[in-house]
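ugh ok fine here u go
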Amino acid sequence: MQIEDILKEKILILDGAMGTMIQQYQLKEEDFRGSQFKTWHKDIKGNNDLLSITQPEIIKKIHLEYFIAGADIVETNTFNSNRISMADYDMQEYVRELNIESVKVANEAREEYYKKYGNKPLFIAGSIGPTSKTASISPNVNDPAYREVDFDFLADIYKEQTLALIEGGADLLLVETIFDTLNAKAAFFGIEDAFMEAKKSLPLMASGTITDAAGRTLSGQTTEAFLTSISHIPLLSIGLNCALGADQLFQYLEILSNKSPFFISAHPNAGLPNPLGGYDETPEMMAEKVKVYMENQLVNILGGCCGTTPAHIKLFAEMAAKYKPRTL
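structure:
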């Protein structure tokens, strides 16, 4: 059954945070290095994507926990698996391997789920993050025209990542945490190039992030402007994630739901970060807040971002089973 058909019948559950789960393992520098990067010339602690190569069992276990909790879609551990983000560790040449291995680990978790619990439609979404650079804003206050990256370079790095995700066997692609729509346009341009080269296309999901109380992205777009800017792309879904908690996100999801011709996704944070950078909303607290999305038939795909765990996703899945999805 195609995911488009399933989305018409039920709310699909996306997984929760990867970083939150990795933190629980309290990994040290040597854990990140593994045997493969024992003598690497730079510190690599914090390079979570690398764990798909050096600690695959941990990443597989996290994916499996989300599947068991009720997730229909898990995101690959590839949020930063691009040349720009990997430059922090001098690991640009490992981009292809990182993406392929991350899909492989997610696939192994799915197969393990099938062996234990039987078959049902489960999907692996190749996670494509925004990079740490922006094409719309100058990082130099004294030179507003300066840019660290341009459209063509961004398109190339996204093409490289996409080709590896396709090669690895991803079912969907999720361009997420979009803070600059020009970056996202470059991503989708690169993705289309990759589709042509690979002679294969995958369903596309887009998820933006609202960064202030005025309801704008970092590059200054309103929610409606964000939708309009990428509505030429044949998307499976458009949605919002990160930056805000579930209650703050509601009004912006409402705008998307009213105006979008695509399915709607939401994976908010577990509240706003506390002074220590942690997230305090329990699964029960957050479930009450996302319940409003479903009561108002705003969403087709629901998951969690920063601070969320399998316990959050379990409650979302139990609740979503009682509600009808948003109709196109």
